[in-house]
Specification:
Elements (H helix, E strand, L loop, with lengths): L3 H10 L3 E5 L6 H11 L5 E5 L9 E4 L5 H8 L7 H12 L8 E2 L8 E4 L21 E3 L3 E5 L6 E4 L2 E6 L2 E5 L5 H10 L5 E6 L4 H7 L9 H9 L4 E4 L6 E3 L4 E7 L6 E3 L14 E3 L2 E8 L4 E3 L10 H17 L5 E7 L5 E6 L6 H11 L9 E6 L7 H11 L2 H4 E8 L9 H6 L3 E9 L17 H10 L1 H4 L2
Parallel strand pairs: 1-2, 3-18, 4-12, 20-21, 21-23
Antiparallel strand pairs: 2-3, 5-17, 6-9, 7-8, 7-11, 9-10, 10-17, 11-14, 12-13, 14-17, 15-16, 19-20, 22-23
Helix pairs in contact: 3-4, 4-8, 6-7
């Protein structure tokens, strides 16, 4: 699968796409998408005939909601089972291989090129997603390609992009990110910082761009390896930076170190809150816009209390892989919920005293689990980590708050944390506490722990077969 259109065709073929015409950019596209997710509608939404946009401009939301979306995008065996999808991704990312991209001279993204006075970013679909957003955001599911000033390091990341005018946007890169290092390397030379921003692409590129890899891993080359074929890229006319040849819409531009800052935001974050508020950013000045006919923007809309298959599969698979690579034995299953990194669940086969604490501490400290986590629960291997009812049952029956609860302070967080006070946010001390719940049977007397009353699996299978009419959905 090479591009967003092939992905759309694939999910539509499985009955997981709805086409919607006439919805407005201001609040309607975001509102419809949010209601659909909240109600559990397992389809992506393709908005067409959007008022006040160029003819043919479209936007895709709610892609990556289901295991089927994710496995189709990643090239795994299609499945609707979250565990199967997570295991397939875990097996794949364990390799973390890269493969060179292929630079070509032409591609569908070059069908239309806006230069000079023709540049107009405002004619493409850029919704105001939430009531209190500071303006239209075209970049929520984007892939931003940057390089260090010496050309030795390339990165593809995801950073929010607000539209401020036909030739002006803001690129909100938070401190500490790879893009921030690259930007500073140019500013240290008193040079403009170039970037290319892909706004419509196969979702596997978006997933790679907002995944945490070791510093030496190039996300574009990772996608090439994951697809088992080189990602075709073209180079920007101004910057020479690569971007997908089959992208829907790409903007190329730069940020001047001496530019006067403008107000960006606020924007409703994935947390379900306006955590960061307004920020001051140097504008991203647009040099080129490249787009296909009838371009489709890929959006990642934020819905509180809704975990997408994409975040669960990506975060869970990466954390599971890193726990095993850290040499931790006895790992049975790993998953994440709400909305991926906030809440970790790990089931283990206890092998020695303190094993459950060790696993919990590692889960909170590894790269896949360190940012913005809140709660980590460790359960025994007889508990289905993917069944929240079972996890909660184990928590209330095997966890003693006086003995099995640990609160770890001074953990990594960020300014978008809604629980961070305004004073702490402004001070730059972006740390908060985390909670480790040990819901395993006490190791020293686990063999004497009362037997549970769950039905035997063989008996359950036989009864379901014999009374199939009763248990039919």
């Amino acid at each position: 699968m090479r591009d967003l259109r092939e992905f759309i065709d694939a999910i539509e073929g499985h009955g997981q796409l709805e086409r919607i015409t006439g919805a407005k950019e201001e609040l309607e596209i975001g509102g419809i998408s949010k209601i659909a997710r909240r109600d559990g509608l397992e389809t992506a939404l393709l908005f067409e005939e959007i008022p006040n946009t160029r003819p043919g401009a479209r936007i895709l939301t709610n892609a990556g909601e289901t295991p089927l979306h994710v496995t189709l995008s990643l090239g795994h065996e299609p499945t609707s089972d979250i565990r199967e999808a997570l295991l397939a991704q875990k097996a794949h990312i364990a390799k973390t291989e890269t493969r060179a991209v292929e630079t070509v001279t032409d591609g569908p993204v070059l069908d239309n090129v806006q230069r000079g006075s023709d540049i107009d970013l405002t004619e493409f679909a850029a919704p105001i997603w939430h009531t209190n957003d500071g303006g239209p955001y075209i970049g929520t599911g984007d892939v931003v390609v940057t390089e260090s000033a010496d050309g030795e390091d390339r990165n593809a990341g995801t950073y929010r992009v607000q539209v401020h005018g036909p030739k002006k946007a803001t690129l909100n890169i938070r401190p500490g990110r790879d893009g921030d290092r690259h930007r500073q390397s140019y500013f240290d030379r008193d040079e403009s910082f170039p970037a290319v921003i892909s706004l419509g692409h196969q979702p596997d590129l978006f997933m790679a761009a907002n995944q945490r890899f070791p510093a030496h891993v190039d996300e574009l080359e990772f996608v090439s390896a994951q697809r088992d074929q080189p990602l075709e890229v073209v180079e920007g006319e101004e910057s020479g930076l690569p971007f997908p040849a089959r992208s829907e819409l790409v903007i190329e531009g730069h940020v001047r170190p001496d530019a006067e800052e403008i107000t960006e935001g606020p924007f409703g974050e994935w947390t379900g809150y306006y955590g960061a508020g307004e920020t001051q950013q140097r504008p991203f000045e647009i040099d080129r816009i490249y787009h296909r006919d009838d371009p489709i923007v890929l959006a990642y809309n934020n819905v509180p209390m809704a975990s997408t298959a994409m975040t669960t599969i990506r975060s869970g698979a990466q954390l599971w892989d890193q726990l095993e690579k850290a040499g931790i034995t006895g790992i049975d299953e790993v998953t994440t919920i709400f909305p991926g990194i906030w809440f970790q669940i790990v089931s283990i086969e206890q092998q020695y005293p303190g094993h459950s604490t060790q696993v919990g501490m590692q889960a909170m400290s590894l790269p896949a689990g360190v940012w913005e986590g809140r709660i980590t629960i460790i359960v025994d291997e007889d508990v289905d980590a993917f069944d929240l009812d079972e996890v909660l049952w184990a928590t209330v029956s095997r966890f003693d708050p006086a003995e099995d609860l640990q609160v770890i302070e001074n953990c990594v967080s960020s300014r978008i944390n809604p629980r961070m006070s305004p004073e702490q946010t402004e001070s730059g001390d972006h740390t908060k506490s985390r909670m480790l719940i040990d819901a395993t049977k006490p190791y020293h007397w686990k063999d004497e722990f009362p037997a549970d009353t769950r039905i035997d699996s063989d008996l359950e299978t036989r009864l379901r077969e014999e009374y199939a009419d009763l248990f039919a959905e």
